[in-house]
Amino acid sequence: MNRLTNSFLLVIFFPTLALSIFVGFDFPLEFLRTTGSNIPFKSYAFGLFAILMAVLTVNRSIRRWVALFTVSQTDRFVFHTKVSGERKLRITVYTLLEAGILAAVGAALYVLSSDAVLCACVLLFSALDNLIFLWVGLPRFGVGLSKKAIIVADREVVVLYFSGLRKVSLSQQTLFFDYMQSLQLTFPVDCIPENDRNDFLHNLEAVTDKDRVFIQNLGEWKM
Hints:
223 residues, alpha+beta, 2 domains, 19% strand, four-stranded antiparallel beta sheet
């Protein structure tokens, strides 16, 4: 989810940056017979870019906070654990890096052109939300296994439902969940501390229908 959101933000960023440069430096646009600062409907264009960025960042923020709230309700799960220390470290580094990039990009857009103030505000808000989420969530990031699904709540939100599940297998530190109609989803193995992986496997086997779900290559977790 987070990678997809960042990919879409990157796609929106490039035309926003180009428009900011043309407007900020007032470059001539011969094919429009005008200059950057006089581009027609530039405010609408910046507004549209800001709205698209806001939709993406707000959607990501809501999903993260809802997932964090859900996984914190430990009584809803037959198995629950905090994410591993290794993953927490990686989450911290990536989240701080992401927040820094968002803040720098937002500031750069505003410096290039004050007309991009809405886009800059959206990116700065997203950077601040990242930092608050990291501060609040770091001691709460976890993995929950219920009778209906597995949920991972940290920087990435992963939800894997058991409905339609046909096979679970382990390969190269990744759990693969194969569903009907050739759908395959993945689960990051490093979310679960090594000491809890055995309990996770036993509980996973307990909540899945053994007549319909084939569990493969997980013997090394089983003790």
